[in-house]
Structures are given as structure tokens and as C-alpha cells.
């Protein structure tokens, strides 16, 4: 921010007094939050420095913290008495070393979230740009006063190594100066992640017949591995929400991308059916499950207070658009260079997007001193829900007592049954049975992807404005009618084009209204976990259809019964959507 030149010309008052005033005010903010842990900010800072340098000589520790020896000894005493720090013998009889104990590490970890909350409050009250300017001015003054020999840069403020500001901080300031909220960058990287994951998820559908021809495996055998992948993809959803809470969005996204990239690289060496189960069922199912639709729901609810439905719509659209738009390229590569070549683009994309996530993704707006997009900058960030790996089962037990949960899970089971499990997995094979080549069939899927992108983004926009139950009624109803039409399309360009338009427009347009209804009925803190279980139902439906449609073709040599069954199920889902009751008031939801 610009500085008044008159102030620069004539310094006001005693500089020492002014700096101490600021230190007292800042310290009070930290102490207020750390009070419940039994620490003061000076003690937390000292524990952090000892942790970063342990074991460390008292003289070196004093220099790091810019303290004289007597002050350091006085501050260390209560930490030693509490058993958080110990003083041991150094290299010889005369030297001493300061160590942090296991209890001290545990105490610092306990206080870490309180320290972060205080840091975020200061960022919000002062403004991120002003805080960054203050840090830069302090660093400059320290260099001028002692030549940079008295301290340790970032360690001077007590930050542990993992909390040193990253590239994301400077990027947030750069975007803020241009009127762009950092949440849009996080949403863009999430979009690319989900796009790549969905491409990886849809790729095996283009390989059913090439794998069958090369290895002699039946459609039912290959479909079984894909069905297990769908089940893992869904069942990991609730636990992915826990991992995002405990380890952060960035770690979970990078882990998922690494698993998928590794599975795609290694599957090129597969020669046995069990290799397919290991790589495509286990690794691919786990990797995509960590970054499934739950990721989009968590990012939208954490980073956006306004335009949340639109963001969910765009992120959801990536999940279908990636798997559909990528298939024509994959089919062309398979036709010209073999099925192994089609894994290369997914592997490369996974590696590149993992780098972007590592550099730029942050867990919450408060990590950067920001409010969610459209949120109140003066409001404190909402408290994180305490989670462990038993929490999803506890939340499931609570949600299971609510009829709305079963209606949403039931309709989403049918959603998965009629999309991922049936059309995504078997459409190219279905077209092949009716005389259409793999590349033209994949092009029809790409056409569905284009219509799906429009339909799902539009669905997000509509979900912010209209009754989400009625939207679901229309989506499931139109999908059911389009599935009844497919066997009678004669698989001509006109017939399949009509199917692609109606079916594609609501491929997963059901997601934004479902997420919104979940948030309305179960509250923002539990939306990730509850939607995770609802999404698990979606993927169980997909697994049932992937295996069931493959069995139908093997036994009856046709997919028509599976198409009719899915169409009928969609009409049932349309009726179920209208039965969902209106959400209770926010206060009642929060109390539940």
C-alpha cells in the first residue's frame, strides 16, 4: 500500500515503543487462540525453533531467536519442567544441547491448529498484502540493523519448515491485485485433475475388444475387473474426505495422480488377467477414488460461498467430459499403434497436473488469509470437523436415520447404473455389435461429452435458482426415455446423434442438484462425508451395470435387456426425486 511521504519525512514517536505496541497487539491475538493448549506464543515459537534445529546448542538457539542467553534460559525452564524440552550433554563435558522430547512434539502438534487459526485471523484483519509487506519490511530492517547475522530468515517468526510460505502466497497476491480470487485457480487445477482421472476411468472401455482379441479373455472377465474398479472408486469417497481433512487437498490430489499414472504405465506390461485386476481394479480404482466427485464437492464448499452450484457443475462436467472427449483419440491410437499407446497421454497428464497441484493447491482460503469467494472477509473461518477413519461410519449411521439419505443414495445408485457402468463401459462394444467401428463409436461418446459439459454447467446454474428435486425428476426421466430409444436408433448417424444429445445433456447433470440437496439436509461440515457415501452408492450401481451388462452380452449375445432395465430404473429414480422433502432450516440442520 502507498506510504504518506510526510510520514517518511518526520518519524512519529519512539520507534521502540511503536514496535512493542505492535508486538503486544499481535501477541494477544496468538495468545488468545493458544490459551486452550496451555502455551503462549513465545513458548510455541521456542518449541518450533527447537523442533527445526534439534539438537541445538543454546548459543545457536539464542542467535536464531535473537535472544540473549539469560532470556533464553528463563524461557526454556518452564518447557523443561513440563517435559517438552530436555537439556543433554554435547560433544564434550562443557557443551550442552537442547532437544525436543516426544511430549514436546505432541504438544506443539496439538497447538499447531490454534497457531494457524491465529495466523489466519491476522491475515484476514490486516489483509494479505499488508501482512506480506510487513514481513518484507521486517526482514529488510533486520538485515540493515545486524547485517543478517543474527537470525535465521523464516525461522525468526517461529514458523516450522513445512509452513514456510510457498509460491501460492505470491500468486494469491498477484491475482488479488487483478481482482481474481485464488479459489478460481484451485478450481481450475481441480478441474484438470478430475478431467485426467475421468479420462483414465473411461479408457478401459475402449480396450474391451482389443484385450479380448490379444489375450482371449471374455467380455464378462474384463468387465469383472472394471466392476471392481467402479466399486473401489465409489467406496473410497467417504474416506477420501477424511484424508483431505487430515492430510490436505494437495497431498490427496498428488497421491491419486501418482497411483493413476503408475497404473497406466505398468498396465502396458500386463499379460495375465490378475495383472488387470491389480492395476485397473486396485490401483486405478484407488487413485480415481481419491479424486472423485467428492473432491469437487469439497473444493466448491471450502473455496466458494457464492456461485457454488456453478462451480460444482463445471467440476462435475469435467468428470464426464474427460472420459468421453478423450475416447476418440484413444480409439484412433489403439487402431493405429495398439492399445498400449493409448495409456501415454493419461500418464503424461497425471505427471504434469501433479506438479501444478504441488505448487499451487492450498487446503482452505484461510491458509492464504482469504475468505471464500463471495464470503465475508471479516468472518472467522469455519472450524474444521474433527475426523478419523471411523468418522465416515459414524456419519453414515447418523445419515441412515434420515429418509432423504436413502432417496438420494437410491437415485444416485441408478445414476451410476445408467451412465458409467452401462454406457461408458459398453457403448463402443455395443456399437461394434451393430456394425460401427471403434473410432466412430468413440466420436459419438465425444459428442455426448460436449452436450454433457453444457448440460452439467447449466445444471449447476439452475441448481442455484430452482427446486433441485424437480430438476432431478426431469434429468432422470429424460435419461430413461433416451435409453429406451437407443436399441431402436438403428445405429445411424441421425439416430445416435439424437441419443447423444438427449442422453449427453444429463449424463451427470444430476450431480449439482444432488450435492446441493445433500448440503441443505446435512449441513456444510458433513456434506463431503455424506455425499461420499451417496457417491459410493453411485459407483456400486456402476459396478452392477458393468458386470451385469457384460454377463447379458455373454449369455444372450445382446445388450438390449440391460438397456431396457436401465431405462426403467431411471423412471423410478425420477419419481423418487419428487418424494425428497424440503430441507430443514439451517439451525435445525446444524443441531442434527
Largest sheet properties: 2 strands, antiparallel
CATH H-level name of the domain at 5-154... which superfamily? Winged helix-like DNA-binding domain superfamily/Winged helix DNA-binding domain
The CATH class name of the domain at 5-154 reads Mainly Alpha
Number of strands: 2
Low-confidence stretches: 148-165, 585-592
Spell out the key features of this protein:
disordered C terminus, mainly alpha, Arc Repressor Mutant, subunit A, 592 residues, 2 strands
Report on this structure.
The protein has 592 residues and is an all-alpha fold. Among the domains are: 5-154, Orthogonal Bundle (Arc Repressor Mutant, subunit A), CATH 1.10.10.10; 177-211 and 248-302 and 341-364. The protein is built from 27 helices and two strands. It has a two-stranded antiparallel ribbon with strand order 1-2. β1 and β2 form a beta hairpin. α9 runs antiparallel to α14, α12 (237-247) packs across α13 and α25 (527-556) packs antiparallel against α26. The radius of gyration is 28 Å and the shape is elongated. The two termini are 46 Å apart.
Give a concise summary.
The chain has 27 helices and two strands.
What does the secondary structure layout of this molecule look like, with pairings?
Blueprint: H1 5-9, H2 15-34, H3 41-53, H4 58-65, H5 69-81, E1 85-89, E2 96-100, H6 102-126, H7 128-146, H8 167-177, H9 182-202, H10 208-215, H11 219-235, H12 237-247, H13 249-266, H14 273-290, H15 293-303, H16 308-337, H17 344-360, H18 391-399, H19 403-418, H20 420-433, H21 438-463, H22 468-485, H23 493-505, H24 511-522, H25 527-556, H26 560-579, H27 586-591
Antiparallel strand pairs: 1-2
Helix pairs in contact: 2-6, 3-6, 6-7, 9-13, 9-14, 9-15, 9-16, 9-17, 11-14, 11-25, 12-13, 12-15, 12-25, 13-14, 13-17, 15-16, 15-25, 16-21, 16-24, 19-20, 19-24, 19-25, 19-26, 20-21, 20-25, 21-23, 21-24, 22-24, 22-26, 25-26
Amino acid at each position: 500500500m502507498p506510504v504518506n511521504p510526510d510520514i517518511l519525512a518526520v518519524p512519529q514517536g519512539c520507534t521502540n515503543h511503536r514496535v512493542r505496541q505492535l508486538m503486544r497487539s499481535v501477541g494477544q491475538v496468538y495468545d488468545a487462540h493458544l490459551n486452550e493448549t496451555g502455551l503462549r506464543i513465545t513458548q510455541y515459537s521456542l518449541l518450533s525453533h527447537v523442533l527445526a534445529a534439534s539438537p541445538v546448542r543454546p548459543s545457536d538457539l539464542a542467535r536464531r531467536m535473537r535472544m540473549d542467553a539469560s532470556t533464553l534460559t528463563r524461557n526454556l525452564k518452564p518447557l523443561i519442567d513440563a517435559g517438552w524440552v530436555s537439556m543433554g550433554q554435547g560433544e564434550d563435558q562443557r557443551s550442552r544441547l537442547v532437544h525436543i522430547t516426544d511430549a514436546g512434539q505432541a504438544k506443539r502438534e496439538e497447538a499447531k491448529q490454534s497457531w494457524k487459526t491465529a495466523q489466519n485471523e491476522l491475515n484476514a484483519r490486516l489483509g494479505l498484502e499488508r501482512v506480506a509487506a510487513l514481513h518484507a519490511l521486517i526482514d529488510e530492517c533486520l538485515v540493515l540493523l545486524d547485517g543478517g547475522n543474527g537470525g535465521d530468515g523464516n525461522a525468526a517468526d517461529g514458523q516450522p519448515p513445512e509452513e514456510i510460505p510457498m509460491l501460492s502466497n505470491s500468486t494469491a497476491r498477484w491475482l488479488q491485485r487483478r481482482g481474481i480470487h485464488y479459489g478460481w485457480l484451485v478450481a481450475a487445477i481441480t478441474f484438470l485433475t478430475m478431467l485426467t482421472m475421468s479420462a483414465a476411468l473411461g479408457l478401459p472401455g475402449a480396450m474391451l475388444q482389443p484385450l479380448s482379441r490379444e489375450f482371449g479373455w471374455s467380455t464378462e472377465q474384463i468387465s469383472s475387473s472394471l466392476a471392481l474398479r467402479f466399486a473401489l472408486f465409489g467406496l473410497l469417497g467417504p474416506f477420501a474426505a477424511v484424508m483431505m481433512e487430515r492430510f490436505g487437498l494437495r497431498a490427496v490430489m498428488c497421491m491419486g495422480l501418482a497411483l493413476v499414472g503408475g497404473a497406466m504405465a505398468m498396465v502396458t506390461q500386463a499379460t495375465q488377467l490378475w495383472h488387470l485386476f491389480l492395476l485397473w481394479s486396485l490401483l486405478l480404482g484407488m487413485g480415481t477414488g481419491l479424486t472423485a466427485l467428492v473432491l469437487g464437492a469439497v473444493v466448491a464448499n471450502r473455496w466458494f460461498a457464492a456461485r457454488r452450484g456453478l462451480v460444482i457443475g463445471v467440476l462435475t462436467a469435467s468428470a464426464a467430459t474427460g472420459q468421453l472427449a478423450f475416447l476418440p483419440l484413444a480409439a484412433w491410437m489403439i487402431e493405429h499403434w495398439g492399445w498400449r499407446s493409448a495409456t501415454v497421454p493419461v500418464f503424461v497428464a497425471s505427471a504434469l497436473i501433479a506438479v501444478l497441484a504441488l505448487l499451487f493447491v492450498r487446503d482452505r482460503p484461510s491458509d492464504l488469509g482469504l475468505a471464500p469467494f463471495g464470503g465475508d472477509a471479516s468472518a472467522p473461518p469455519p472450524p474444521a470437523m474433527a475426523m478419523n477413519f471411523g468418522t465416515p461410519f459414524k456419519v453414515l449411521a447418523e445419515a441412515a436415520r434420515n429418509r432423504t439419505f436413502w432417496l438420494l443414495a437410491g437415485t444416485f445408485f441408478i445414476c451410476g447404473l445408467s451412465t458409467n457402468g452401462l454406457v461408458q463401459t459398453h457403448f463402443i462394444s455395443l456399437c461394434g455389435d451393430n456394425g460401427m467401428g471403434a473410432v466412430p463409436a468413440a466420436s459419438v461418446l465425444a459428442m455426448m461429452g460436449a452436450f454433457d459439459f453444457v448440460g452439467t454447467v447449466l445444471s449447476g446454474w439452475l441448481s442455484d435458482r430452482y427446486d433441485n428435486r424437480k430438476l432431478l425428476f426431469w434429468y432422470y426421466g429424460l435419461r430413461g426415455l433416451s435409453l429406451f430409444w437407443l436399441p431402436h436408433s438403428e445405429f445411424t448417424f441421425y439416430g445416435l446423434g439424437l441419443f447423444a444429445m438427449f442422453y449427453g445433456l444429463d449424463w451427470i447433470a444430476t450431480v449439482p442438484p444432488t450435492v446441493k440437496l445433500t448440503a441443505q439436509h446435512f449441513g456444510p461440515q458433513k456434506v463431503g462425508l455424506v455425499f461420499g457415501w451417496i457417491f459410493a452408492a453411485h459407483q456400486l450401481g456402476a459396478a452392477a451395470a458393468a458386470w451385469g451388462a457384460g454377463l447379458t452380452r455373454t449369455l444372450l449375445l445382446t445388450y438390449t435387456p440391460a438397456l431396457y432395465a436401465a431405462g426403467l430404473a431411471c423412471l423410478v429414480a425420477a419419481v423418487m426425486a419428487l418424494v425428497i422433502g424440503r430441507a430443514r432450516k439451517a439451525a435445525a440442520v446444524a443441531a442434527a
